[in-house]
């Protein structure tokens, strides 16, 4: 869910993964790579700091993103043990 939202917001702003990574790195002084963006879009959860920055930059409610990540983690088999 988070990954799809991130992808949709990035594409709607006409940004490549590399451009978004560069924007976040430069604007927020946090090291973000295009491979991190790729992993996030494929389902990996970002750090809390990165989540806050993504929410701010893409103008998405942080609570909405946190809920999406928590819900997706609950449905993964490795987190159900």
UniProtKB/TrEMBL annotation:
<dbReference type="InterPro" id="IPR001387">
    <property type="entry name" value="Cro/C1-type_HTH"/>
</dbReference>
<dbReference type="InterPro" id="IPR010982">
    <property type="entry name" value="Lambda_DNA-bd_dom_sf"/>
</dbReference>
<feature type="domain" description="HTH cro/C1-type">
    <location>
        <begin position="32"/>
        <end position="65"/>
    </location>
</feature>
<dbReference type="Pfam" id="PF01381">
    <property type="entry name" value="HTH_3"/>
</dbReference>
<protein>
    <recommendedName>
        <fullName>HTH cro/C1-type domain-containing protein</fullName>
    </recommendedName>
</protein>
<dbReference type="GO" id="GO:0003677">
    <property type="term" value="F:DNA binding"/>
</dbReference>
